[in-house]
Automatic annotation (TrEMBL):
Origin superkingdom: Eukaryota
Designated name of the protein: U-box domain-containing protein
GO terms assigned for molecular function: ubiquitin-protein transferase activity
PROSITE patterns in the record: U_BOX
UniProt-listed GO biological process terms: protein ubiquitination
Pfam family, one: U-box
Annotated U-box domain residues: 79-110
UniProt xrefs under InterPro entries: SAM/pointed_sf, Ubox_domain, Znf_RING/FYVE/PHD
């Protein structure tokens, strides 16, 4: 009876893993992109209903990244256009957004580090951080990463 229960549990988990894998393939999410996603991004992409699900994926992936770091040496640093790098994180942007100061940042970086920007209060309207997606730059970055493989 216990073995039967374990087999059912394994098949449920295997099915869930296959679903997540299909979402990753459909959205063309690679390791670089996955490492830049926030917990909110994970909830939206994978249709998680509870934050703890996104936290588990986020924490697991961060543990993997600590054991097997992926750094900028995977790319020729001189070949990466400067406009693809976030001025806060110095990493290739996953979700470039334009702030009210006219500077483009990676969304997760500015949302977590806006207080490090001089005169950061100018980035807010009605106490809300105003960010505007830069779809063109995002597409250029995705093409660059795809062609760099």
């Amino acid at each position: 009876k216990l073995q039967f229960s374990l087999d059912i549990l394994w098949n449920v988990k295997k099915s869930k893993i296959n679903q997540l894998h299909e979402i990753i393939k459909k959205n063309k999410i690679d390791g670089m992109l996955l490492s830049k996603l926030s917990k909110t991004d994970l909830m939206n992409i994978f249709n998680f209903k509870m934050l703890c699900q996104a936290c588990n994926i986020y924490d697991s992936f961060n543990e993997i990244c600590k054991k097997y770091p992926m750094n900028m040496t995977d790319f020729d640093k001189d070949a990466i256009p400067k406009e693809y790098l976030c001025p806060l994180s110095k990493s290739i942007m996953n979700d470039p957004v334009i702030a009210l100061n006219g500077i483009t940042y990676d969304r997760s970086s500015i949302m977590n580090q806006y207080q490090s920007i001089p005169n950061y209060s100018s980035l807010f309207i009605d106490e809300n951080l105003r960010l505007y997606p830069d779809y063109g730059l995002r597409q250029n970055i995705q093409n660059f990463l795809k062609n760099s493989k």
